[in-house]
Design brief:
Layout (H helix, E strand, L loop, with lengths): L1 E7 L2 E7 L4 E5 L6 E2 L10 E6 L2 E6 L6 E3 L2 E3 L1 E3 L5 E4 L2 E7 L28 H15 L27 E7 L6 E4 L3 E5 L6 E2 L10 E6 L2 E6 L6 E3 L2 E2 L4 E2 L5 E4 L2 E7 L2
Parallel strand pairs: 3-4, 14-15
Antiparallel strand pairs: 1-2, 1-11, 3-5, 5-6, 6-9, 7-8, 7-10, 10-11, 12-13, 12-22, 14-16, 16-17, 17-20, 18-19, 18-21, 21-22
Length: about 260
């Protein structure tokens, strides 16, 4: 089981179990991990599952995202890695190294966002904070991001034909009637980062996540209180999508298919 521990100084503020969904990190309350600090951008970074490992990726934030004392744009996470975002740290613990991760992440309790501009954080100060956090955690200090382990060069099997998925809206309020699922992760919701943007005052910021893996598409609810139905049946956890499936979530109904 892989987890993230949000810390400020030595205090653990939040623990999040990681799944194959996206864990968003930022100052605004529609993030899974909300850090209400002016040094943190509204949607600062994200952590997600990519093939066989977790990845942390910066969302072009003002102050940047640091992994083990080095500023990164995107990097693989390993056990005991320390991520610095603003003045907070995220400790990554990977207690289970095989297969897909398990339980769903918690959703942080929203608080009203402070809409002031992101405050510039001194890079030298950020690195000092990272070094202090690593020393407190007993993690080894490294000057560079960990290099990926070498793998044996074997002849790979022929990959499956990569078809592009599509959603066609049948009912409900969205900003388009048809969407192409070109990304590895597509968010359904009202949030600015949503690919399928919901309209309406009561629409949730994040309702569901559609992930693409090995030429297949999967859907999962972003949090337990939001229900997802496939062909009229409520699903639990992650569910593979098949051509012609009818998806119902957050007051919209869509059909799933592939481009010709």
């Amino acid at each position: 089981m892989a987890k993230l521990y949000l810390k400020f100084d030595a205090a653990v503020l939040k623990e999040v179990a990681l799944t194959q969904g996206v864990v968003t990190i930022g100052r605004l309350p529609d993030n899974v991990i909300q850090i209400d600090n002016l040094a943190v951008s509204g949607h600062h970074a994200k952590v997600f599952w990519d093939q066989d490992h977790f990845v942390v990726e910066d969302n072009n934030s003002l102050n940047g995202t640091f992994l083990n004392n080095r500023r990164i744009s995107k990097a693989t996470l390993k056990d005991n890695d320390v991520v610095l975002i603003g003045k907070h740290t995220l400790a990554f613990k990977d207690e289970w190294h095989e297969g897909a991760p398990g339980a769903a992440p918690e959703k942080s309790g929203p608080s009203l966002p402070k809409m002031e501009a992101t405050m510039m954080l001194d890079t030298k100060k950020a690195k000092e904070m990272m070094a202090a956090a690593q020393a407190a955690a007993g993690a080894p200090r490294t000057g560079t991001a960990a290099e990926p382990s070498p793998v044996e060069h074997l002849e790979p099997p022929a990959p499956p034909k990569d078809r592009m998925g599509m959603l066609t809206v049948m009912e409900g309020k969205t900003d388009q009637k048809q969407y192409t699922l070109a990304s590895k992760m597509s968010v359904i919701g009202k949030s600015d980062m949503a690919s399928i943007r919901l309209r309406g005052f009561f629409a949730p910021s994040m309702a569901a996540l559609i992930s693409k893996q090995d030429a297949k598409y999967y859907i999962a609810s972003s949090e337990p209180k939001i229900k997802v139905k496939i062909n009229g049946q409520e699903i639990a956890g992650r569910k593979e999508l098949n051509e012609g499936d009818i998806i119902e979530v957050a007051g919209i109904k869509m059909t799933f298919g592939y481009q010709d």
